[in-house]
Design a protein that fits this description.
This protein folds into two domains: 73 residues; 53 residues, Serine Threonine Protein Phosphatase 5, Tetratricopeptide repeat (Alpha Horseshoe), CATH 1.25.40.10. Helix 1 runs antiparallel to helix 2, helix 3 runs antiparallel to helix 4 and helix 4 packs antiparallel against helix 5. It contains five helices and no strands. By secondary structure, the chain is mostly helical. Keywords: Membrane, Transmembrane, Transmembrane helix.
Length: 149
């Protein structure tokens, strides 16, 4: 729950920033001089890119959460079998062992979105966020019946 509140707070702050920057861009364009119009257009591009990124990130989080809830209802969420250091961090060797197991499960049934979801969690636990995101995107696509890239 704390992460949802943090995400919502960050999203609101970003939206405020987008509005503020967009307003400045419009003021620069309204000035009418060629240089300020060019700067104004450039300034407007930044909030548009940011809004696009925020939208896609929010959609990704919503879809991943939906899959997580569905998998939980089926009783298929991965069991936390990781050992932790005294400070609470996941032990790297433990994460690697669980990852190898999840990878083997996914290779055995590559069209099952559940395996890709569990693999994404294993990647995340192994601190490989880019691959975790790609595995989760694949799980979402398989779940929704979309073609794979």
């Amino acid at each position: 729950m704390r992460s949802k509140i943090s995400y919502a707070g960050s999203a609101v702050a970003l939206l405020f920033y987008f509005v503020l920057v967009g307003d400045r861009g419009l003021l620069l364009i309204a000035d009418g001089r060629p240089v300020t119009v060019a700067f104004g257009v450039a300034v407007l591009v930044l909030p548009l890119i940011g809004a696009w990124f925020l939208w896609h990130t929010t959609q990704f989080a919503r879809h991943a959460g939906r899959l997580g809830r569905e998998l939980e209802a089926e009783g298929g969420l991965p069991v936390d079998e990781l050992t932790r250091t005294p400070s609470g961090r996941i032990d790297r060797d433990s994460a690697d062992a669980v990852f190898a197991k999840r990878q083997a499960e996914t290779e055995a049934a590559p069209e099952d979105w559940r395996n890709w979801f569990r693999l994404a969690v294993a990647y995340f636990d192994a601190r490989d966020t880019p691959r975790a995101r790609k595995a989760m995107q694949r799980a979402i696509a398989l779940h929704d019946g979309r073609p794979q890239r």
